[in-house]
Amino acid sequence: MNSCHSKKKKKNKSAIYFFAVTAITAAACVFIIKEGKRIKKENELLSYEVW
């Protein structure tokens, strides 16, 4: 009975780690995409600037 209980705990920890890693990865992707768009807009504005 104890081994079954510890297997459930391990499964729960694995699921929590999986979702945590997934959330962190998703947040990083969103940040990178937004930063890329911001840099692209900034470069477009700079290209129209007249010196």
Task: Tell me about this structure.
92% of the residues lie in helices and 0% in strands. It has one helix at 2-48. The termini are far apart. The protein is rod-shaped. The protein is mainly alpha-helical and 51 residues long.
Give the mean pLDDT: 86
Rg over CA atoms, rounded to whole Å, is 22 Å
| Bulk shape | rod-shaped
Number of helices: 1
Low-confidence stretches: none
What's the helix and strand layout?
Elements: H1 2-48
Describe the structure using short key phrases.
rod-shaped, 51 residues, single chain, 1 helix, mainly alpha
In short:
The protein has 51 residues and is mainly alpha-helical. Helices cover 92% and strands 0% of the residues.
